[in-house]
Amino acid sequence: MPDRIDEGYGPNDAAMSALAKDHDLIICVDCGTLSHGPIAAATGADVIVLDHHLGGETLPKAIAVVNPNRQDESGELAHLCAAGVVFLMLVDVNRQLREAGQKGPDLMAMLDLVGLATVADVAPLTGVNRAFVRQGLTVMARRNRVGLTALADVAGLDQAPTSYHLGFLLGPRVNAGGRIGKADLGARLLSTNDPVEAEAMAAKLDELNTDRREVEAQVRDLALEQATVRGLDGPLVWAAGEGWHPGVVGIVAARLKEATNRPAIVIGLDGDEGKGSGRSVSGIDLGAAIQRTAQDGLLIKGGGHKMAAGLTVARDKLDDAMVRLGELLAKQGAADIGPADLNISGILMPGAATIDLITQIEDAGPFGAGAPAPRFAFPDCQIHFAKQVGANHLKISFGDGMGGRIDGISFGAMDGPMGPMLMNHNGARFHLVGRLEINTWQGRQSVQLRLEDTAPAH
């Protein structure tokens, strides 16, 4: 598993050459489609690529390149993440084993990993992905995988998991090792059968995730300040900084994208090069634009898919590369995108928001990218109390004056206008918008609104 800092993303010449000396078969997962040189360096070994990133005009000389995003594919399964590609490959391997009279592994028991990967990679929960996550949550709830059980415990997950828990509690902790620690720590946790080892690794990942949040916050503030000076209304929002940790630039790019509703790229500079990650908005193919910029000779390398991509750029070509990327994204309409829409599914009074209602909504899940959970508006509400929790979060209690009362939580609200406005409500009434969830604390359940937006009622 490549080290993000020392080796970057995907296979490299030295590693592939070394592996080929004592391995007959090398399988590249979640990478390799554009790795012509490194795969050619694996002299004497067969190479199989299992990937989902956008393919180029030519493929590397491997035994097989299994990728639904190859240019010669129909795109029917383009929404798969790499774990989904691996799973479908194993389904066919199992079929061939059965035809040969052999018994293969129980793949259904592995869907907890496929579901976790699908949500953590922000793959759309449509088609087969929806089935992966729904069944994966069922498997995960049995707590049979030692590593995931330890991770759930350290994350304080004491209820049946949902797609939210995969994306915001478990996924970030698994990824924390690769971002700012040891690259293989998450994989080792998910594969161990030793409860003691799992507990120690889960604790370490939890610690690394806390460190990651601190590093992310520092880079985020600097990146937003720089991008604001450069301008937030163009086709591309970008920032680059000396020594910015490569393990958090992708997360910070996602924060810039969310704040501006524009494609965003954040780059950490080190020596003569910069390594960056980008996140895009619906309808804008960032991966294709980065590939084209690399073909134009302005990037050392780059690739990805529509919504997320990475790049390596020479310091002296940084500005030219970003100008070219902006031009390509403008041709896709990125400069014409307005503020992000806040789609509201319906209007509720606080008294109608019950645990039974939320349970029925959850039965229609899973929810996530491509399949958002219903969002409700609560009109003309009185704020009973509002207080800051943690570094920048907001907790409130609100009602309509007719007996209904709900608690609400908004993460990061104090970094924007919503938190201070509700903290200083002075008896004013507000329209509140968010998604309902069941909050479980010490075995007790209550209704909670995950608050997303607000506006004065009068």
Task: Annotate the secondary structure layout.
Elements: H1 13-22, E1 25-29, H2 36-40, E2 46-50, E3 64-66, H3 82-99, H4 111-120, H5 128-141, H6 146-154, H7 163-180, H8 185-191, H9 195-230, E4 237-242, H10 249-260, E5 264-270, E6 273-279, H11 286-295, E7 301-304, E8 308-314, H12 318-331, E9 346-347, H13 355-363, E10 376-389, E11 393-399, E12 405-410, H14 418-423, E13 429-441, E14 444-456
Give the key terms.
single chain, 458 residues, alpha/beta, inorganic pyrophosphatase (n-terminal core), Diaminopimelate Epimerase, Chain A, domain 1, OB fold (Dihydrolipoamide Acetyltransferase, E2P), 3 domains, 5-stranded mixed sheet, 5-stranded mixed barrel, 14 helices, 14 strands, globular
Give a written overview of the molecule.
It is built from 14 helices and 14 strands. The strands form three sheets. A five-stranded mixed beta sheet has the order 4-5-6-8-7, with helices on both faces. The protein has a five-stranded mixed beta barrel with strand order 10-11-12-14-13. The protein has a three-stranded parallel beta sheet with strand order 1-2-3. Helix 13 links the parallel strand 9 and strand 10. The chain is globular, with a radius of gyration of 23 Å.
Summarize the structure.
This protein has 458 residues and is α/β, with parallel strands linked by helices. The chain contains 14 helices and 14 strands.
Low-pLDDT residue spans: none
- Helix percentage range: 25-40%
Query: Which CATH-level-2 architecture of the largest domain?
Result: Alpha-Beta Complex
Tally the helices.
14
